[in-house]
Every structure is written in structure tokens, then in C-alpha cells.
Amino acid sequence: MSVQNVHLIAAARPNFMKVAPLWHALAAAADFRPVLIHTGQHYDANMSADILADLGLSEPDFHLGIGSGSHAEQTGKVMIAYGEVASAHRPDWLVVVGDVNSTLACAITGVKLGIPTVHLEAGLRSRDRSMPEEINRIATDAVADILWTPSPDADTNLAAEGVPADRVTRVGNIMLDSFEMKRPAIEAAAVPQSLGCNGRGYGVVTLHRPVNVDDPAQLGRLVDCLAELHAELPLVFPVHPRTAARLEAAGLDRRLAAAGLRLLEPLPYIRFMSLVSGARAVVTDSGGIQEETTYLGIPCLTLRESTERPITIQQGTNRLATPDDVVDLLRAALASGGHGEAPARPEYWDGRTAERCVEDLRRRTR
């Protein structure tokens, strides 16, 4: 039996959570060998390095060390660096995940080298082309050979774009594989208790999108909103490095602290999910947290005009929010009872996505 080498690309914090279950499933298979490649797009320890340990991943086989830069700089540097690795250590398969610059850069590079290329989490669309991630999604799906989708809406999007059905396999939501894989450690971490949040309700905040944090006026509006929300429900805010820099530059970090919000450094995956799992509500502009809160039945208010994960609204607990209505939406969510007893979960959001990915690779290898 020949062993197929599979390059797995990780660049930013959410990528590791998507790559980890697939890495473990491939490592356990006799006919595949995973090769982990970290492009270095996120290089803060809490945003990437600590997650390796949390998710049971070995050190990357290759670290490209790209670092920060403009979209063009990051994309170009990743294409050059990954092209050198892929040429010298040619894989049988390349799997890119999510929607960051490294996703598109490696997909283009792999396809041009004639490497069968798979996009995990394909077909998601926000319809907002001002988001760099939306451009990355569209372009990656256009060039990749195989598209692994998380939900029926993604299948529908790809069909509408003329993608042949034989290129698409719905495998489910691999983020939730990571949660189930680490559920015992998440429950044992007891982060709410360590922060003194046990026995009383609290909410979790995450913000990092440029549209929300780069303009000091918009960021100031959101800070005022968070202060008002905090009066309704005590808030814990693990602050993304990008957001921390913007808050400090505008002097808004002091306003948040004065309002009483609990500001934390970014948390590694297990500790973060321990915090989220105990929350009565979440306020975010992230993508993955919309999915995790849907899975857990926790009300989620997403501070964006659109979402590439509409299934979390149609079938889950997510609601789009603005600074004008987020306080009222939080009150309504809290009045509805918080945690759902039996949250509705889309098909294949079951912790077994990685198994389906491996089986699809195996089927396409025969």
C-alpha cells in the first residue's frame, strides 16, 4: 500500500482548529501521512503557537515565517515560500482551509504546480466583496480541484457558480470536531470559575474585523455599546492583538476598563472554549464563534452587516447586530432563556467531519 503525503496549510488561529482533527485522522490512517505547514501569518503565541499544544499537534514540518504585511505582501510571500517547499517536497494532496490570505496563496501555487488541491470549508459566501476574506473564498473555490463544504447553503452557492457536482463533497463542520476532540479538557479547564464568573451570568466579547476596529470613530461607538451591554450582563473580553493596538492608540482601552469590562489577553483554544461554553451570550464579529455558539445553543450577536454562515441564523442562535440594536437584541436573547436545552444542529455538524474528509480523499485516490 502506497502512502499518500498530504500538505495541510495553517496560517491563523482558526486554521489550526480546522486542521487539527484532519491531521489526527490522517495520522491514524495507514495510507496517508499529514505534513503540517505553518505559514506564520499569525505569529503571536496565544494566536498560534499555544494552540499546537492545545490541539495535540506536533511542531509544523515547515514554518514559512511570513509574518505581517499588506494583503499583497502576505499573499506574494506565501506563494514564493510555499512554492519552494512544494517543489522540493511535492505532496500527493494539498489541503487549504478557511479564507485567509495563505489559503488563496497556497491554493494558487498548488494548482499551478499540478498538485491536487482541496479547499476545506468551501462554498461560504457573505456577498460582501469589501471583505478580503470573501475575495479569498471566491478565488480559492474557483481554482481548487476539490471543494469540501460544511453545510447545504455552501453546496447551493457553488452550484449557482457553475461548479460541477463531482468536485463538491459536503463533509460538515470540522471546527466542531476540534471541540468534541477536546471537550473533556475544555470542561476541566474551568475558566469561568477561575475568573470568578461561576454562579452568575456573563457574556463573552471578541472583535477584530477591520471595519469594526480600524476606524477610531466606529471603535468608539462599539466601546460605548459594550459599556451599555456590560450594564445588562457582565462582559469578559479576550482582546485580539490588532484590537488591543487600536484601543490603546485611541485611548479607548481605559474607557472599557472604567466601564468594568474584564479585559484579557487572547486565550489558547481550550481556555477560550471553556469561557465560551459557560457564557449566557456572545458578542462577536468572528466567523467560527457563530458556528460554535450554534452548536452549543448559546445566543450570539454578530456585529456585522452580513455573514458567510447564514445557516447559523436560519437554523441556529445567531443574529446580525449593529451598534443601534445590539443592546435590545441582547435583552431579548437573555429573556428567551439563554442556553437552549437541545440546540438545532445542521446535518454533519457532529464531530465526525475529519473521518468524512479522509474517506473522500481515499475514494478520490482509488
Q: How would you summarize the topology of this molecule?
A:
Blueprint: E1 4-10, H1 13-27, E2 32-38, H2 49-54, E3 62-63, H3 71-88, E4 93-97, H4 101-112, E5 117-120, H5 132-143, E6 146-149, H6 152-160, E7 168-170, H7 175-181, H8 183-189, H9 191-194, E8 203-206, H10 210-213, H11 216-232, E9 235-238, H12 241-250, H13 252-259, E10 262-264, H14 269-277, E11 281-284, H15 288-296, E12 300-302, H16 311-314, E13 318-320, H17 326-335, H18 353-365
Parallel strand pairs: 1-2, 1-4, 2-3, 4-5, 5-6, 6-7, 8-9, 8-11, 9-10, 11-12, 12-13
Brief summary of the model shown:
This protein is of the alpha/beta class. The protein has two domains: 4-173 and 348-365, Rossmann fold (3-Layer(aba) Sandwich), CATH 3.40.50.2000; 183-335, Rossmann fold, CATH 3.40.50.2000.
Describe the protein in words.
It is a single chain. Helices cover 48% and strands 14% of the residues. The strands form two sheets. A seven-stranded parallel β-sheet has the order 3-2-1-4-5-6-7, with helices on both faces. A six-stranded parallel β-sheet has the order 10-9-8-11-12-13, with helices on both faces. It is an alpha/beta fold and 366 residues long. It has helices spanning 13-27, 49-54, 71-88, 101-112, 132-143, 152-160, 175-181, 183-189, 191-194, 210-213, 216-232, 241-250, 252-259, 269-277, 288-296, 311-314, 326-335, 353-365, and strands at residues 4-10, 32-38, 62-63, 93-97, 117-120, 146-149, 168-170, 203-206, 235-238, 262-264, 281-284, 300-302, 318-320. It folds into two domains: 4-173 and 348-365, Glycogen Phosphorylase B (Rossmann fold, 3-Layer(aba) Sandwich); 183-335, Rossmann fold (3-Layer(aba) Sandwich). It is built from 18 helices and 13 strands. The chain is globular, with a radius of gyration of 20 Å. The termini are close together. The model has no long low-confidence stretch (mean pLDDT 93). Helix 3 (71-88) crosses helix 4.
